[in-house]
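User: My advisor asked me to double-check a structure prediction for Microtubule-associated protein 1 light chain 3 gamma, like before group meeting. I don't want to rely on an old file, so could you generate it fresh from this sequence?
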Amino acid sequence: IMAPFEKSMEMMPFKQRKCLATRKDEVCSIRSKFPNKLPVIVERYIREKTLPLLDKTKFLVPFELTLGQFLCLLRNKIALDSTQALFLLVAEKSMSCMSSSMGEVYSQHRDTDGFLYITYASQEMFGAAHPASLLDVIYCCPDVFCIKYITE
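Assistant: Sure, here is a fresh prediction for Microtubule-associated protein 1 light chain 3 gamma, like from the sequence you gave:
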């Protein structure tokens, strides 16, 4: 059983749990041990209510894996059914192309600490304020995701 302080620390975003120097050291250590992998932090959107927390936030990802394939892995980890939408925001601001390799996404959006930060959320996180700008990720099969713009 976790103490209340430990539990609240676990709920804090990764960047707030560790200082910049510690995070940079961690990335150096990871990159020296696993030169073919990218250090990625995946966290649930802070206002997300319907999707569960992942059991871990740190991932080592191959350069050539696409963002769509990574999304598929996350869907399986979270155990979503085919009707539930899952959105990934890279560096807290952008929805990247699902066919981009993780290497490309990392080189464009990695943080100064060396980690790539990805936030996941359900459609509800966007609320009703942005109905025309929503991207609807439709689950096609285990390896393929189609992106459809909602225009109303």
